[in-house]
Amino acid sequence: MAGFFRVLFVLSFLGAASADIVKITSTPSGATVEIDGIKVGTTPYEMKVPGGYIHGTKTVWGKSLEHQMRLHLTLDGYVSKDIDMANGPFPWIGLKGTYYGDYWVLKTKEFHFDLTPSATAFTGQIQVASTAVLTPTRPELTPEKVAELAGPAVLRLERSEA
User: Fold this and answer.
1) Which of 53, 80, 56, 93 lies closest to 69 in space, CA to CA?
2) Where are the domains positioned within the chain?
3) Looking at residue 135, what is its pLDDT?
4) Which residues of the chain have pLDDT under 50?
5) CA–CA gap between residue 72 and residue 1 (Å, rounded)
6) How far apart, in whole angstroms, are the C-alpha atoms of residue 123 and residue 109?
7) In b/e form, how buried is each residue of 125-156, taking b as 16+ CB within 10 angstroms?
8) What's the chain's Rg over C-alpha atoms?
9) Beta strands in the chain (DSSP E)
10) Most C-beta atoms within 10 A of its C-beta, which of 13, 25, 99, 147?
11) Can you say whether the dihedral through the CA atoms of 99, 100, 106, 109 is positive or negative?
12) For residue 138, what is the DSSP state?
């Protein structure tokens, strides 16, 4: 029984020791951080992730990132940023060749963004230029011609007074 608790302690210690911190910063700070469409905080932002998210897992007990993580940063007056945070998918294949699914690995532990003010990003004048020549798909019909063409489709119902 004591051996079981030693194994459990070692496994729990390994799980805790393999956690990493991912940092998301911006200049200027205070940008809203959304990960996978969920607002999680503002920059500077730190989140604890399993080590397998950064290095990939090596064992069946390790945690693996099972989807792409999408980061969205917004700050009033600045151009928003959207990035995919991970590389992948990579196939997870066991030693005996068994396929266990796909996983992703975060690109880095530190994501930093220099935000661009909207006023400097969107300057100039908007101009519309078109080289396409629009041609009607069918000729214009006079009201008389429409009535003539629709005549055979009109059904007249009469009721006898019997």
Assistant:
1) 53
2) 2-122
3) 65
4) 4-17
5) 49
6) 34
7) eeeeeeeeeeeeeeeeeeeeeeeeeeeeeeee
8) 32
9) 19-27, 32-35, 38-42, 45-50, 70-74, 81-84, 86-93, 99-106, 110-114
10) 25
11) negative
12) S
